[in-house]
Design a protein that fits this description.
Blueprint lengths: L8 E4 L25 E5 L8 E6 L4 E7 L2 E6 L4 E6 L4 E5 L4 E5 L6 E6 L8 E2 L2 H11 L1
Antiparallel strand pairs: 1-7, 2-9, 3-8, 3-10, 4-7, 4-9, 5-6, 5-8
The chain binds thymidine-5'-diphosphate.
């Protein structure tokens, strides 16, 4: 049975290699499967920190290790998959209704997130049991 997690994958971004320094660009809805409405980033992340531990009802996101590295564990309620992000020209597309945990941040890492909507606390599911219940209702 196909599950939601199969919609989530690593996407390679354009990379212009240059001896003066490499360049990567992202064009709205051209390189990622949604229109970008918001950009935010996590930085100054203390060793051992976890972020995430929630799902979004409708939000699409694209997560990039713009500096350093970290892991993203995705869970669609049936299958869990762990991705290691360590290059600024790769990103992870995360579809709606995906529980996520970000951990293993390297020192000085920066996590850039592109999102399909502005911040809306009502779009969050912060209780794992509620998330599981809602995924069962969607099947
Ligand atoms: P949250 O998304 O829970 O962070 P994480 O999943 O990385 O642990 O957000 C942490 C706090 O920041 C929360 O109080 C909401 C606030 N916030 C905004 O105000 N705007 C935003 O765009 C984001 C992502 C968070």
């Amino acid at each position: 049975m196909a599950t939601n997690i199969e919609k989530c994958s690593i996407i390679q971004l354009p990379r212009i290699s240059d001896p003066r320094g490499n360049l990567t660009f992202i064009e709205n809805s051209n390189h990622i499967p949604f229109d970008i409405k918001r950009v935010y980033y996590l930085y100054d992340i203390p060793g051992g920190s976890d972020r995430g531990t929630h799902a979004h009802k409708t939000l699409h996101q694209f997560i990039i290790a713009i500096s350093g590295s970290f892991d993203v564990e995705l869970d669609d309620g049936i299958i869990k998959k762990r991705f290691h992000l360590n290059r600024s020209y790769y990103g992870l597309y995360v579809c709606p209704m995906m529980w996520r945990l970000l951990d293993n941040f390297s020192s000085g890492s920066v996590c850039l997130v592109l999102a399909s909507g502005i911040y809306d606390e009502f779009d969050y599911i912060r209780d794992y049991n509620v998330f599981i219940q809602e995924t069962r209702e969607l099947i």
